[in-house]
From TrEMBL:
Species this chain originates from: Pseudomonas amygdali pv. mori str. 301020
Any single Pfam family the record assigns to this protein: T2SSE
Protein family: Belongs to the GSP E family.
Designated name of the protein: TriJ protein
GO molecular function, a single term: ATP hydrolysis activity
Chain ranges of the Bacterial type II secretion system protein E domain: 2-61
Higher taxonomy: Bacteria, Pseudomonadati, Pseudomonadota, Gammaproteobacteria, Pseudomonadales
Gene3D superfamilies: P-loop containing nucleotide triphosphate hydrolases (3.40.50.300)
InterPro entries tied to this protein: P-loop_NTPase, T2SS/T4SS_dom, T4SS_GSP_E_ATPase
Length: 109
């Protein structure tokens, strides 16, 4: 992720966030790399948001940020969250978070 700052790509595609690199991903995304994508394992949109926040806290740079501030930063930098329901071998689109419609509701949570 840190090399992305130097390479100045138009978009960043990170296969999956699993730890403190989540904070690095959001720093890059919020610095003008719109259209970037990643994935996270979760049971719902709300769990995805909480999972992103928890992973950001694994990075020492943001451990002192209040939860509400970090949640707002994540939601300000995230346009869409798609939750895929998995039942056996079948995958279906479950919940969808669209920033333009859902941000205030999720900020209040």
């Amino acid at each position: 992720m840190k090399s992305c700052f130097r390479m100045n790509p138009d978009r960043i595609f990170l296969a999956e966030v699993r730890g403190g690199e989540t904070w690095d991903f959001y720093k890059v995304v919020s610095s003008g790399h719109g259209g970037s994508m990643t994935s996270i394992h979760s049971g719902s949109v709300e769990e995805a948001i909480d999972g992103l926040i928890e992973r950001c806290y694994q990075n020492t740079e943001c451990q002192m940020l209040p939860y509400a501030v970090l949640r707002r930063k994540i939601l300000n930098s995230t346009d869409i969250i798609c939750h895929v329901d998995v039942s056996g071998d079948v995958r279906r689109m479950g919940e969808i978070y669209f920033k333009a419609f859902d941000q205030e509701r999720y900020l209040a949570a």
